[in-house]
Structure formats: structure tokens, C-alpha cells
Sequence to fold (222 residues):
Amino acid sequence: MDNAIILNFKTYEESTGDKALRLARICDDVARETGANIIVVPQVADIYRISGEVSIPVYAQHIDNIGYGSNTGHVLAESVKSSGAKGSLLNHSEMRLKLADIEASVERLRALGMTSIVCTNNINTTRAAASLNPDFVAIEPPELIGTGVSVSRARPEIVSGSVDIVKEINPKVRVLCGAGITEGEDVRRALELGTCGVLLASGVVKAKDPRAVLMDLIKGLE
Ligand code: G3P
Fold:
């Protein structure tokens, strides 16, 4: 996969329901115009309405370690796949999971031909996540999430340390970083540190002009 900008819609008002579709369309337009690899990660309830309207990949924010059956209220990987999702985040710092469930969910996604991105909070958890063989790990120090202070500038050692440990444990796994990313320079530094892209939310979702922010972020991919 080319270097990517992955936009987590979280549960912000600006990225819920019809507004989620509007934001996904902006991402789709920017991706088409620039050729950049942009992935959108809306709430489960918005996946279906978005996936039919855009060409860029749509991922889920979470799936549960369950199969078909009696699991009221859970998120079934088969269901998000049939709604059009091509992958899922797992273990986001706002949705932490048990190690055994992360491993099983990575396997569930792989069996369905879907991409897994396991989020981690430090180098030790990155090491553990890499051993579970996901497609990606995304290092996101929770204290920087939503601050506008970029992980790639404020904590470069945690990003490069994650890249190094993943190379040692499981070189097939690719590394992303996130937290506080707001501009192209943050993306450029993230790539310099050995990642293949960024995971971000508020910098775009809460922006007055999300399109302008996306265009700037993409400059960092060049
Ligand atoms: O999943 C991305 C996220 O946790 C980072 O959030 O708002 O700091 O870009 P933000």
C-alpha cells in the first residue's frame, strides 16, 4: 500500500450521519484530484451510507471478537464487510481490548480479506501488537490525542522506536503513527521516522476547512 492518510471520524458531531458523508466526499474528491491514498474511518452506523458513495477505502473503528450468533450490541466483522468496510482499527486508545481478543480479531479480519490496524500506546505494546501479525500497528500516545501537538514532532523517539521494534519482531507489519497530527510537516516527519503514514482525527474533522487541511497534509506525503 502507498503511504496513507487515515482519517478517524470518531464520534464527533462534525463527522456523524449526513456530515460524515459530506466529509467522506471531501476526502474522496481530494484523493481523486491528488492521487493520495486517503482512508476514512466512520462510525459503524455510517459505513454503509458512505461506502456506496465514495471510491476511497472505508474502514471500521472497531470490531468485536465474535462470529454470527447471539451477540446483541456487538460489532460483527462480516457485517461491516457487507456494509462496504475494507478493514478495521483495533484497540484504539478509546476502545482498548484484551490481547487475546486483538489476536483473534486480526485473524477474523484476515480471513475475510480485510485489513487490520492495531493501535498501541508505547513501544512495549507495539512489540506485543507486532507479534500478533496485523497488517499495521499505529503508535498513538494517548496524552497527545486531540491536542494538536504532533507525535512525530513531540515524541519522535516513540515513533522511531516503534518502527525499530516492529522490524525486529515482524518486518511484514507496517507502522503508522497518530496523535496531534494537523499539517503536512507532521506527516513528512512521520514518514522520515520510518512510518508509512498517519492516523488522525480532530485536525481535519474539527477544521473550518477540512479540504484545505487535507491538501496541506498530502504535501507531507510527497
Ligand atoms: O485515531 C486517531 C486519533 O486518536 C488521533 O486523534 O485528534 O489527535 O488526530 P487526533
About this structure: The pocket of SN-glycerol-3-phosphate is lined by residues 8, 92, 140, 145-146, 178-181, 199-203 (CB under 6 Å). The chain is about 40% helix and 15% strand. The mean pLDDT is 97.
